Amino acid sequence: MSEDREERPLDREERPPDREEHYLDREEHYLDREEHYLELCENPVQFENASSVNNVFFDEANKQVFAVRSGGATGVVVKGPDDKSSVAFRMDDRGEVKCIKFSIGNKILAVQRTLKSVVLPDKRSLKQLKSQSINVNWYQFCPETAVLLLSTTVQGNVLQPFAFKVRAGSGTMSKMSKFEIELPVVPKPAKLSLSERDIAMATIYGQMFVMYLKHHSRTNSPTAEVVLYHLPREGVCKKTHVLKLNTTGKFALNIVDNLVVVHHQSSQTSLIFDIKLKEPDCAVNTHQPVLPARSIHPYRIPLAGPAVVPSQPPIPCQLYSSSWSVFQPDIIISASEGYLWYLQVKLPPTVNLLQDKGKLMDFLLRRRECKMVILSVCSQSGEKGRLPIVATVFDKLNQVYKEYLEAEQSYTAAVESGPSRGSAAPKRPVRTQAVVDQSDMYTHVLSPFTERKGVSHKFIIAVLMEYIRSLNQFQITVQHFLYELVIKTLVQHGRFYMLHQFLQYHVLSDSKPLACLLLSLESTYAPAHQLSLDMLKRLSTANDEIVEVLLSKQQVLGALRFIRSVGGHDNVSSRKFLDAARQTGDQMLFYTVFRSFQQRNQRLRGSPGFNPGEHCEEHVVHFKQLFGDQALIKPSTV
Length: 638
Hints:
One of its GO terms (cellular component) is Mon1-Ccz1 complex. By secondary structure, this protein is α+β, with helices and mostly antiparallel strands. 31% of the residues lie in helices and 21% in strands. The chain is built from 16 helices and 27 strands. The strands form seven sheets. Strands 1, 2, 25, 26 and 27 form a five-stranded antiparallel beta sheet that branches. Strands 10, 11, 12, 13 and 14 form a five-stranded antiparallel beta sheet that branches. It has a five-stranded mixed beta sheet with strand order 15-16-17-18-22, with no helix packed on it. A hairpin with a 2-residue loop joins β19 and β20 (259-264).
């Protein structure tokens, strides 16, 4: 397993004769699929594999694979991350190709055939813009940050970075502060001791780092470690993190979803590190792997060609092969098999591998595709029956939720106040999957949890109240549907005394929807009617709005009782109530409401009939069709 540079063709591999037997031996190791938290992407970039007539090169800047046949005479095929960046052409065979690249956008091709010359086939001219005189052992370039890193001095451990900025038609090069890599042993006499294979550059959590793979020495640490040096655009580069590998051997590094992935060839496993999971108050943070070492998920290569039998199974790919080439941030190439993969993190297996649920939440909340896994952790925490764990999970969740709400409020306030002179336009905060709101929790966790069999209703209520407690702690306004869920759960289990206390001591905040729910519970719990009225009075809400809410929930009789209790029955629209009663499809409800308004008309006007201005003619016809003329209240019989 190697981190070959793009200047060399990627290695060719001779397959071992016992390859099939090798995988049969390992098949049992792969049975537990949920153990594998790393996987190769499903749709890799495919290219012609390396052979005696085909050389394969990789350009890190454009993420392009070049398959060069016979020095280009019989074709050059370029494959990129997508079909748009793929191209094929031919060029004259003028000797061995040592390196080949396109400029951004595939506009200019550059070919290197000798150590000291680069050829541009379309004969463009170049102009020197700036030069630096410095002795260089080797170099690395990070295309994402446009930073060039040069190894200097005899031992090679003094690194000099340069930053490049490209503008329309021109570019600038600036010298950054040089820094020294701490070697495990200083050789005497001095000789080159820092290899480019042990250095990688990457962006982690928006900051640039130089990663140094520090191998063990006989006198110092018995195991290898990865040392991270933070490289700011301005200022001094400092050693900030040490990742303990707890083993020795050949390693390769990737960055996936802001995680440092360390591949170990001899054990055929990988480790992941999260530098945000750090010890407080330390100048240099020392990290252990987040999870136990595990292999990348097995990958099978489908057979291709005219002789393939449809039922023939795909061939297992040899993971951690010595011919693998690893590139930043997340690329693995097998030149011998003709595949370029993007490495990916699978989050579901981490749930059972990381027992500390607080640490697990910290880990998951920083990952891109985390929402559904986080919701599953919340559900599992409820099932386990330990309230302190539930509280920790909810608090971790709501801290991120609160930060997002505050950022949204700041953005809204900045937009409403208008742009100030000299300041940049406000940027709307990005809602990541780590933002799990109350609707998400209600739909995926809390509502299903209340219906779960075999769980104590006391614990169910405790979990619901714990989530509400957490929201209040972070000063997040609790949505009424959560209170409704609490009330329905209390009523379902006959916990009326607790419901009464929650309302009396304002554990459940007043709201119109909550008051309407209480009104609907009157037949189940008689005091609910008065509790509802008290809440409505505290809200000082317009009576018409309360009636509308009740009617929208088809609580027609509840709306009638409410409007009577506040003395508004004589003035309400009879058509509104008759419409709502008819929409329920309940014939006896329609009968009761219709007769109620006939009685009101008789009392107010001396006649049970409806005035033309009330537009109730269609309801009178409907009533007659259902119950006949004899069911109408007659003026003479009242």
